[in-house]
Amino acid sequence: MSSADSTVTRLIPRHVAVIMDGNGRWAKKRLLPRVMGHKRGLDALEATVKNCQELGVECLTVFAFSTENWRRPADEVGFLMNLFLQSLKKQVKRLHNNNIRLRVIGKRDRFGADIRDGIAEAEALTAGNSGLLLSIAVDYGGHQDIVQAANKAIASGKTELTEADIQAHISLNDVATPDLFIRTGGETRISNFLLWQLAYTELYFTETLWPDFDLAALQAAIDSFGQRERRFGRTSEQLPEHEQRN
Ligand code: IPE
Ligand code: IPE
Ligand code: MG
């Protein structure tokens, strides 16, 4: 039976977080400009949103642009910002019709007003939807996320911070932390993605370049997740599954 067989029963992670990496190499392999890889990467994102929704994933959080990605050549940064704006405008109705709730996490103050308005409109339009929660991390950094959470806690009058204070203000605090992290493109690092939220997430790395990430690739990641034993510090014998197995 192939891993893409829809009759296979899978343990579906509720929250999947993805570093969509490898667009540039995908393009380079085809002697195309890097930005063509980003364009195809957007198609892969569209497909992944649909696949996650159909598989029953509740939250999908994707890394689209890091606080470090501003260091790229100005024309690539400009292309990515424009692609983000155009896709916000183009896709929002389709996302809304599919009952998807869209949210953008990260800093907003380095965007132009057009992008800020586009985000606000997309979030407002889809806020009441009950299907997949799609969070797009743009100008996002895990360090920056923790610092902004600490600053908000301090502004609310706290002097000595607890984990609960950070948790109360960190991005995505209203949903369960990611169950499964996927990074495409072969690098085995976190690159300043959701540092706080990934503390107990199952990590999965694949050589597949992001534009090639399809349903079978997603299912392979979910199958790997299904093999993991999540102990959260406990022993195997303490887990409820252990009772069922014996
Ligand atoms: C990921 O692909 C997309 C962004 C960071 C915006 P890359 O552009 O990093 O692709 P590679 O890693 O150079 O292949
Ligand atoms: C991480 O990818 C950020 C995104 C996918 C948006 P990078 O390709 O920028 O990561 P590094 O710098 O190689 O670690
Ligand atoms: Mg990269």
Automatic annotation (TrEMBL):
InterPro entries: UPP_synth-like (IPR001441), UPP_synth-like_CS (IPR018520), UPP_synth-like_sf (IPR036424). It is an enzyme of class 2 (transferase). Its cofactor is Mg(2+). Coiled coil: none annotated. Mg(2+) binds at residues 21, 202. Its EC number is 2.5.1.-. The keyword Transport does not apply. HAMAP family: ISPT. This is Isoprenyl transferase. It comes from Vitreoscilla massiliensis.
